[in-house]
Design goal:
Methylamine Dehydrogenase, Chain H, 2 domains, 4-stranded antiparallel β-sheet
Length: 241
């Protein structure tokens, strides 16, 4: 069904984040670089950014802004067309592990290792700062309509916010030792899939805070969940390899 077509190599340390846009792949890692690669050839182009800290997260904001989250909590915005930094902020003081852009509202959600969430608009103004005090935030998921944000929290809970007023409308006790990944099902928006440090994959009716199914998926934490074939298949990634 799947086969490896290319292997991109060039970072001098672990690669922590990867996103795609058009024919480009953007990567960031422990070597403190953000690099850009041509998707069809795997060749690095002239776009590269050097930081003073490891790069933990990347997200595209609109058409041309690249948000970069660093290990020291600083948040940088680059115009990828002009190849220049637009702004940077020090709202957070610990590593930024999760970012998610909501195209419906134009808001960027940023989560850090201490359980704080900042929300930014496309003018790069801080909209609200939410000290959730939930431990490291490793993952965000947006519902298909952009109205709800799921947050994977180290304290073992999934928190659901409404994206209009940023109210916490559901708090679900989900995984022992922490939630590490979340995904709204693309075909059934009432279903939320979560993975945790307990190596379990769980399916929730999130509005009822009810667990529908538990799958022993791995032997270590589940760090990523994606949907395939329009939601008919789920793929998970874990440190157990």
């Amino acid at each position: 069904m799947f086969r490896k077509t290319k292997e991109i190599s060039g970072h001098a340390g672990a690669v922590y984040c990867c996103i795609t846009k058009d024919n480009y792949v953007y990567t960031g890692g422990a070597d403190k670089f953000v690099a850009r690669w041509l998707l069809d050839s795997g060749v690095q182009d002239a776009f590269a950014i050097r930081f003073e800290q490891a790069v933990y997260s990347l997200e595209l904001v609109g058409e041309s802004l690249l948000a970069v989250g660093l290990a020291d909590g600083s948040l940088h915005f680059f115009d990828v067309d002009q190849r220049m930094e637009v702004k940077y902020f020090v709202q957070h003081t610990v590593g930024l592990f999760a970012m998610k852009f909501n195209a419906q509202t134009g808001y960027l959600f940023v989560g850090d290792a201490a359980g704080n969430v900042s929300v930014w608009n496309q003018l790069l103004n801080l909209v609200i700062y939410l000290p959730l005090d939930c431990g490291k935030i490793r993952s965000f998921a947006l519902s298909e309509n952009g109205e709800y944000l799921a947050i994977a929290c180290q304290d073992g809970f999934i928190r659901i916010l409404d994206t209009a007023n940023f109210n916490e409308i559901h708090t679900i006790r989900a995984h022992e030792n922490g939630v590490t990944s979340v995904l709204f099902h693309p075909l059934n928006p009432q279903f939320l899939i979560s993975g945790g440090k307990d190596a379990l994959l769980k399916i929730w009716d999130w509005s009822k805070e009810s667990c529908l199914k538990v799958v022993v998926a791995h032997t270590f934490a589940i760090y990523e969940i994606i949907s395939l074939q329009e939601g008919n298949l789920l793929a998970t990634a874990s440190r157990d390899k």
